[in-house]
């Protein structure tokens, strides 16, 4: 199955993507994670991306598109993938459509995980992420089982710089201006399914699997 996730930052895309990826045995491709790993490794791409990310802005399309192109061509994407955080602009969506067309495949579903802005701002302040395996947590709603150590790999979980409140407000504006138009774009293709992202992690996961037709 070929899936894209369209929710706002903080809507729970990453959390749901990890579960979907494990259950359907398809790779989870997060452009945000790819940028963060480049930042950690001090690459040229990482240095450029960080300037935009720290300001709550999108990394320019020309830097983003290439990394996705390379990733989709890898062997493990043959039976499907879940794209988390890509596309985020109309040009990225058009690029993806063309790339998939060349590969002779199509998207099956665009999941729109909907959460109101006020709820997102509340959530983000408590958000923590495992820098190693990408699992996400929340200090109140979904803390790691042991202190601040990741349940999956035992690494210490951290707050991302871009989860700070003033950056979150900018990221939401960026989302409404540049990414929300994708809901219309994919509605025209007939593949959007809206899921309530405020129902709690497990209930949302259940809705997601219902939307995907997975028992
Ligand atoms: P995320 O972890 O998906 O919330 O992404 C974190 C940040 O990485 C975003 O706020 C953007 O600055 C950048 N980013 C991730 N994916 C994209 C994308 N598809 N296009 C442009 N910038 C992106």
Kindly identify the CATH topology of the domain at 2-115 and 179-212.
Rossmann fold
Derived from helix and strand composition plus strand pairing, the structural class reads alpha/beta
Point out poorly predicted stretches.
none
- Give the % helix: 40-55%
Percent strand: 5-15%
End-to-end span in angstroms?
Answer: 14 Å
Q: What would CATH call the class of the domain at 2-115 and 179-212?
A: Alpha Beta
Secondary-structure element string: EHEHHHEHEHEEHHEH
* Fourth-level CATH superfamily of the domain at 2-115 and 179-212: P-loop containing nucleotide triphosphate hydrolases
What is the makeup of the main sheet?
A: 5 strands, parallel
User: Please, what is the average pLDDT?
Assistant: 93
- Strands of the largest sheet, in order across it? 2-3-1-4-7
Any idea what the radius of gyration is? 16 Å
CATH architecture of the domain at 2-115 and 179-212: 3-Layer(aba) Sandwich
Q: Helical stretch count?
A: 9
Annotation, overall tally of beta strands: 7
| Shape designation | globular
């Amino acid at each position: 199955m070929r899936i894209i996730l369209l929710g706002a930052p903080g809507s729970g895309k990453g959390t749901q993507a990890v579960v979907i990826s494990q259950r359907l045995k398809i790779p989870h491709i997060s452009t945000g994670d790819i940028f963060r790993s480049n930042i950690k490794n001090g690459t040229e791409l990482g240095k450029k991306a960080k300037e935009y990310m720290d300001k709550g802005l999108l990394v320019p399309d020309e830097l983003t598109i290439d990394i996705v192109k390379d990733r989709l061509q890898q062997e493990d994407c043959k039976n499907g993938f879940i794209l988390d955080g890509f596309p985020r602009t109309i040009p990225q969506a058009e690029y993806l459509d063309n790339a998939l067309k060349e590969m002779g495949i199509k998207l099956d579903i665009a999941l729109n995980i909907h959460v109101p802005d006020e709820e997102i701002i509340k959530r983000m302040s408590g958000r923590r992420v495992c820098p190693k395996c990408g699992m996400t947590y929340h200090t109140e709603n979904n803390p790691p089982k042991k202190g601040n150590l990741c349940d999956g790999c035992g690494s210490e979980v951290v707050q991302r710089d871009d989860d700070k409140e003033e950056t979150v407000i900018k990221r939401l504006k960026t989302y409404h201006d540049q990414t929300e138009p994708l809901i219309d774009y994919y509605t025209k293709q007939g593949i959007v399914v809206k899921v309530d992202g405020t129902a709690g992690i497990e209930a949302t996961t259940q809705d997601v699997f219902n939307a995907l037709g997975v028992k």
